[in-house]
Each structure stands twice: as C-alpha cells, then as structure tokens.
Design goal:
two-stranded antiparallel sheet, 7 strands, about 30% helix, about 120 residues, five-stranded mixed beta sheet
Length: about 120
C-alpha cells in the first residue's frame, strides 16, 4: 500500500495485523497507532523512501508484508514490491503480499506484470 492510501484503508491494515498475530507472528511493526514504525529505506540522492506495511518475525525469520489494494499509482506499488522482494532475497528474509476481498484480481495482475507470479497472496 502506498502512503496516499494508508488513511483510507487503515481497517484492512488492522485486520491484517490481527490475522498475523493469530498465525504466531511476533515483534510486529506497522505504521499505525499502537505499533512501532518499521524501518524505512531511502534512495540515495532523492527523497524517495520505501516502508513495508508490516514487519514481523516468526521462528527467528523476518517477514516483510505489503498490503495490495487498488491504487491510483500502480507503478509506485510495483516498484515497492520489486524492492522489497529483492531486499528479502538478499537478506534471507521473506516477502509476502496481503490482499482483501475485491482486490484479488488486481493483485494477481500486478504480480504477473512485475514477474512475481510465484508469490501467492494471502487473502483476508
């Protein structure tokens, strides 16, 4: 989810956190009240920063989660996913996409467009 959509879809973010807690994830960091904000990654030489929607650990392994919802800026969302996927591969972490009802087809089309079709979205 991009920053412009954070306020609009805060309920989906809260539902996602509850889902992850019920699945045994710990040390959850999210960009909402009551949780620590995840680390942001900034591009050198510009003001662009990427922040995962949720960061959690399970069995000693860090997981990055991004929430996929229909967006006005799909190009920005695609580049965020590619960055998080690359970062997770470099550091032996995991990257997963969370989506909600009404956004499944959009999410799958976006994953196919950036050649991440091996990722299976978590449906909430």
């Amino acid at each position: 989810m991009i920053k412009a959509d954070k306020d609009k879809y805060s309920d989906v973010l809260e539902n996602s956190i509850a889902y992850l807690e019920s699945r045994g994830f710990e040390n959850i960091k999210a960009d909402i009240d009551g949780y620590e904000t995840p680390k942001s990654f900034s591009k050198v030489g510009s003001d662009i920063s990427v922040t995962p929607d949720i960061v959690a650990t399970k069995e000693g392994r860090k997981h990055y989660f991004d929430i996929s919802l229909k967006s006005e800026k799909p190009k920005q969302l695609k580049s965020k996913w590619l960055f998080l996927n690359t970062l997770s591969n470099l550091k032996s972490h995991r990257f997963k996409i969370i989506t909600a009802r009404g956004h499944y087809k959009y999410t799958q089309d976006m994953l196919d467009a950036v050649n991440l079709s091996n990722k299976k979205p978590i449906k909430i």
